[in-house]
Amino acid sequence: MTTAYFFDGRSARRHEVALGVGDGAITLVGAIDRSYACGDTRVAEPFEGTPTVLYFPDGARCEVDEPEAGRMLRAALGYRASRTVRLTAHTWAVLAALVLLVALILVTTFWGIPTAARKIADALPPSVDRSLGESAVDALRASGVLRQSRLSDEWLAEVQQLMRRVAPADVPVRLLIHDVKAFGANAIALPDGSIIMSDLMVRLVVGKRGTIGDTEAAQLAGVLAHEIGHVRLRHGTRVLAGSSLAAALSASLLGDFSGVAALPGVLASLSYSREMEAEADEYAIALLRKNGISTLPLADLFERMEYGPELEESGKEAPGWIWEAAESFMSSHPLSEERAERLREAASE
After folding, report:
1. CA quadruple 216, 219, 225, 228: dihedral, nearest 10
2. Helix, strand, coil % (nearest 5) of the chain?
3. Taking all residues of the chain, what is their mean pLDDT, rounded to a whole number?
4. Closest by CA position to 77, among listed 50, 56, 58, 48
5. At what angle do helices 113-123 and 235-254 cross, to 10 degrees?
6. C-alpha dihedral (109, 114, 119, 120), degrees to nearest 10
7. CA 324 → CA 233, 305, 309, 327, 329, distances in Å?
8. Interval 176-234: pLDDT, tens
9. What's the Cα-to-Cα distance from 106 to each of 67, 137, 190, 281, rounded to whole Å?
10. Which end of the chain has fewer CB atoms < 10 Å from its terminal CB, N or C?
């Protein structure tokens, strides 16, 4: 007999009993007198430093604290560790499992979720895009993120005119220009077709000239065409679908679904993949060509923002605030020499 603690499965009260095994049965004597068939008793998987736990068919259980008594009890009941437990005793098996886990995470993150997000976005009706975008704009306004633009009426009118010039009839878009400190120098496209451009984005393009000439107009048109591409290709909806899937996957593992409810906040910090940026670039190239606008100024703008600090040190460019502002644009619109080169190639095609 060995000392054990009995729990009836209906209350948290612990009963001290003497436990014995013999004649195909487990006998409990003491505060509780009971007997269970060994064949109906299940032994929990043991862990180092924890009690041996027996589960009985009526929902009750017993815990045996003494390690040696626990080992003898498991042997008497014919307990055999599962294959998984036996494999964990081998270093090679643990390393193989780790490699497979990392591979599974990478495949899910870089292929599974994006592929599923694309299919989900394609299956959603346009009304979902409108609802998502409108909710995001309302939330940004309610939080005070979107403040009234400080640009001159002349600049605002010119940028809006550029929007009307490049926006295709089959893509419902609208341009919102605001003083948005949280965005820095940036432009983002929401699923409903709302394109939010910050004052700093316009100032970044205009630079030291102080006027919107042909070059500046082409650069702003290029930025707008790029964002229209995100709307037309439903990139925002795809990102949100992917964020939902990632949040749901994380919640299933960690037990916290709060990330799924935070989707409106995701809209305010959309960051597209290089694939999506390339797709939006190609769309912008076609849209600019259709409107007779060269892609060279947009390539110059990308390179100016990417290499601005070096140019500034040589005394060839604008004050430092421009490059601090440009960092926010580059953080959500990853730049590269390849993208600028593609725009230059497009100008000569």
Report:
1. -80
2. 55, 15, 30
3. 82
4. 56
5. 120
6. 70
7. 30, 10, 9, 5, 10
8. 999 988 777 888 899 999 999 999 899 988 877 778 999 999 999 999 999 999 999 99
9. 41, 33, 28, 27
10. C
